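Example A, followed by Example B.
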Amino acid sequence: MATTMTLAQLRTAARQRADQVNSNFVSDSELNSYINQSYFELYDILIQKYGDNYFSADPVQFSTDGSTMQYPLPNGTLTFTNGRTGATGYTAPAFYKLLGVDLMLANQQQSFVTIRPFNFSDRNRYAVPNFQSFYGVTNLRYRLNDNYLWLTPIPSSGQNIQIWYVPRLETLDDDADTADGISGWTEYIICDAAIKCMQKEESDVSVLMAQKMALIQRIESAGENRDAANPATVSDGQWSDLWWPTGNGGGYGTGSF
């Protein structure tokens, strides 16, 4: 059984659910808008809780130039190196939410160290010459700033940065465009779009609202852990970068970031 549905199929299903099959009260273009809004809702439900499990784009890589502090994030037109395939000139999908930033170790292809974020109040704390040791110790930090990745201190020339992220969802424009329901979760799109149709004609939507709430519970429960054999654990908050100051004075993992 397919887990995807086309825009045309979603439109038909939403009209059936709202009992508006033979009605032109809601036009196709308006219903397409409702469906897209509902699809974005479903996407956000999954992103907010389990973004890296379901909607992670291929990581992208770029090299620093030694003078720039802020580098543009993928916007659907910029090209990068694909961190999964190694292909250059890769047009990456537009950025939505960040999952992680890595620094490639010098002279060690595809070996990385995690770059940690910094708070805005600490923007000058690491403003000293950038360094990276053979063992992966670095004082480089990142922060999202508008549509840019802000690195501090200014990274040395030729350092390779890798970004893991959740892509922005593309709208369904053509009737053949498909929505991925993962596990039949296109039912949420159908139900929510039908609610919008019935709200326009001021009909009672209480039954569909109850179904929508049940679907949210189902999605949140079933979607919680994609790796059923090994549930996710709490991330390490006692991180240390060895001798570089971490805020606790010692730098040996006794404080949190």
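Example B, a separate protein, is given below in the same form.
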Amino acid sequence: MNLKPPEQTLHERFEPLRRALTTGPLADRVAEARVVVLPGSEPPWTDTGISLESGDEITVLAAGRIVLSEELDLWFGPRVYLWRRIGEQGPVFRATRETATHCADRAGTLQLGIYPGAWTTRNGEHEGAGGLAGALGALLIRWRGDGVEGVRALASACPEDLLVRAELERLEHPVIRPAHWEPLWYLGETDLFTAAEVDGRSVIRAHPENEAAIVKRAVDTDLTPETRLTWSWRIDELPSKAAENTLPTHDYISIAVEFDNGQDLTWYWSAALPEETVFRCPLPWWDQRETHIAIRSGTAGLGRWSTETRNLYADYEKALGKPPARIVGVWLIAVSFFTHGRGAADFADIALEQPGRRIALD
């Protein structure tokens, strides 16, 4: 049993890499290398002491976990909970994985933050903070010159380090994101959704693995009693094995519509809830704005393409009452970090339809 505090374990995890970067043949490539550990019990933002100029290239390799509940096995890794900003005015951003290499777009001191539960502004003001167990740690490398070449050299010097290998793989094989779909800024960038060709058709693929993301296609159209959302999907693996209407089991893959009153409806394939079950999101903050509708249930039909049509006006009226005037976005959602599992789905032929009008969104 490892009885070391997580802060010590994380320092020990990264110290050999830091030494390799600063004392060996790699030193000429490195302007600065520093290990920073963020305990979950402290407020979100920590000044790393690394000053960046616009154009500087920096690599971040991160590990650890923040624990919300030991009893419920609720914990999150750096892919979800490690955020950063350059200077106190931000904006905030996070990496798509545990590793990242990026070019500073402004001058300022690099700050690291533990996700507090909800950002209220783009520069990192927040609701809730601190008081959590666990810790996140990161090795920060400010390169002299090209960051990709620096990571390649580090991988040659430390070929057994899994994070270094993962970052080199990410850099050399970037994902293709679906055109016109953007992540929600307050959830961060994502590589979870990718553009692909499957069975001779263009699809948006979602393969979450112990992570969560939302991408949005901006829309501006009226909501009428005839407005329909149509799409095709193939769910190969459900991320939850239990009913998704509790916080510890709230893993799912879905399509959603955002309205001009700040509400959204999301339709998904449930592992266990009866079809047409409607429930409010069990997550804090989201419980004020999101409503789920289970439109398929169980394992029958998994692995096969299905086509869906939903009357948005009728669904909203049934779930929430008087419908709003306009639709402002369509989302794709994938969540798998509550049960630490994985899911697999493909979406195609997404459209908003009214008599005499069709808005294609894929």
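On Example B: The radius of gyration is 22 Å.
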